Amino acid sequence: MFAKPTRWELGSWQQKAWFAGLCTALVLGGTFLGCNRPPRGLPPDAVMAGKVVADGTPYYGKTIRVYGYVSNTSGPGVFSIADGVAGTASLPVLVKSDGFAVNMGELVLVEGAPTAYDPGRVRQDYRIDLPPETARGWQNRPVLIAVKMRKLD
Q1: Do residues 108 and 81 make contact, with C-beta atoms less than 8 angstroms apart?
Q2: 46 Cβ partners below 8 Å, 6+ apart?
Q3: Are 115 and 142 in contact (CB under 8 A)?
Q4: For the whole model, what pTM was predicted?
Q5: Exposed end of the chain (fewer CB within 10 Å): N or C?
Q6: Apex CA 90: angle with CA 85 and CA 96, to 5°?
Q7: Phi, psi of 106 (to 5 degrees)
């Protein structure tokens, strides 16, 4: 009377289950991959802040572009950026120019030269004088002396 459905015949419940599983995997995979995309407008040579925090020595004395989320503000011209992942260390940023305000959580691209923090050297070489309470714990840590900045989308 009725013909027995074949294994791959359209309408069989096995094929529908397989197709639904495939679609779910594609959606989850696309979502996961989309979360790791770099921000729009990011130059290809930009480095995440966490990479400089982990080991800044290869970057010392070179002008680089670093991006991250503002994680702390310590007054005009002083803030920190981090990768945006909870628990990651932040990179202190010292701004040489005035007129750039940042807010907590903003994604920024900062161009400048990383250096190991030494209050005397920073004061002498860059004319930046920070109160000791602002720079507490920064000794010999990488800090970024910023010359350009912009906000990213």
Answers
A1: yes
A2: 38, 65, 66, 67, 109
A3: yes
A4: 0.71
A5: N
A6: 135
A7: -70, 145
- Residues 26-84: tens digit of each pLDDT: 655 554 454 556 677 788 999 999 999 999 999 998 999 999 999 988 877 889 999 87
Give the chain's end-to-end CA distance (angstroms, integer): 64
CATH number for 47-151 (one of 2.40.50.140, 3.40.225.10, 3.40.50.1000, 3.30.430.20): it is 2.40.50.140
- Any idea which residue has 């995309």 for tokens? 37
What phi, psi does 114 have (nearest 5°)? Answer: -75, 150
Asked whether 151 and 101 are in contact (CB, 8 A), the reply is no
The set of residues, in sequence order, having a beta carbon less than 8 Å from that of 9 and lying 6+ positions away, is 15
3-state class (DSSP) for residue 148: strand
Q: DSSP secondary structure string, 37-90?
A: PPPTT--TT-EEHHHHHH--GGGTTS-EEEEEEEEEE-STTEEEEE-SSTT---
Domain extents in the chain:
8-37, 47-151
How high is the mean pLDDT of the chain?
A: 81
